[in-house]
Amino acid sequence: MNEREKNSNPEKNRHGHPTDRSDPTDRSDRTLPARPARLRPSGGYRKLRSFQAATVIYDATVSFCHRFMDPRSRTVDQMVQAARSGRQNIAEGSRASAASSQTELRLVNVARASLDELLLDYEDFLRQRGLPQWAKDDPQAKAVREVGRQNQSDRSDPTDRSDKDPYSSWITHADPAVVANAIICLIHQANYLLDRQIAGLERQFIQEGGYSERLAAARIAERQRKDRTDPSDPTDRPDQTPTACPLCGKPMALRTARKGRNAGSQFWGCPGYPECKGTRPVAGSGRSVGSDLSVGQEKLKKGPHR
Hints:
The structure is a single chain. The chain is mainly alpha-helical. The chain has 2 domains: 45-211, no CATH class; 236-306, no CATH class. The chain contains 9 helices and 3 strands; from the N terminus they run H-H-H-H-H-H-H-H-E-E-E-H. Strands 1-2-3 form a 3-stranded antiparallel β-sheet. The longest helix is centred in the middle third of the chain and has 33 residues, at 176-208. Residues 160-164 and 286-306 have low confidence and may be disordered.
C-alpha cells in the first residue's frame, strides 16, 4: 500500500470512527475501565415484577385520565402523580440500596402508599358515577390476574415485544367501568408484590444488617488482613482485635472519643449507634471511654452548671 492509499484509508477505532494517533487526547479507541465492585449491589429494578406492574399502571392511568376525565380537574393531576410516584419510588429505592437499606425500605413503602391512594381514586370514580366494581371472584377480575401470572416479560423495556400489551383488551375498552376495574386489579397485584418485596427487605436487613454495618465489618476485615500481611504496621496492633458488642452481638468498630476528659482515647463502639450504645475498652486501656452520649450523661449526673 503506497502513501496515498494510507492517507485515504485512515485507521478506525472499534466504533468505526477514524482515530488520530498523533493526537494524545484522542482516547476513542480505548475501552472504558470495568466498573468497580461495590460493597452492596444496587439497581436492577427493571427486572422487578413490582416495577413492571407499576409501569403498566402508570401508562394506563395517563390514558384513562386523557379519555374519561375532565382535564381541568385536580383529580387528574393527583391520579397521574400517584401513579408516577408508585413507579419512580421503586426505581429510586433500588438505586439507593447501595448506600442505605433504610432509604430503600422507606421509598418502597412510599410507592406502596402512592398506589393505595390511586386505588381509592379509581374506586371513587366508579362509586360516584354509579358504575359497578368487580368482585374478587368476578370472571373478568380473574382473567386480569391470570394475565399477570402468565406474562413475566419486562414491560418497562421498550424493546421487549413479547406478547405486547397483554392488557390492551381491557385498557383500551370503550367502557370506563371496564378500564377502571382492570386497573384496580392491576393495583392489587402490584400492592401484593410490593408487600412481598418489603417483607424481603426487612428480613435481609435483620439478617445481614445495613450498609453502615457492612462497611464497618469490611473495615475490620481489612485491618485483620493487614495485621496478618504487615505485622510491622503500628496502626494494626494485636490488642486491636475486633470484639462483639455486649448488647447486640454485632462486630464492633474501633472509635476515638472526641469530647470529654477521655478525648483522643480509643474504645470499641457498636456500629449500630445510636440505636445501640454498647462499648468495650481497648485491651490495655483498663476501661471503656464510652460514647459521646455517655460522656454527656455523666455530666448530667453531676448536676447542672451553676
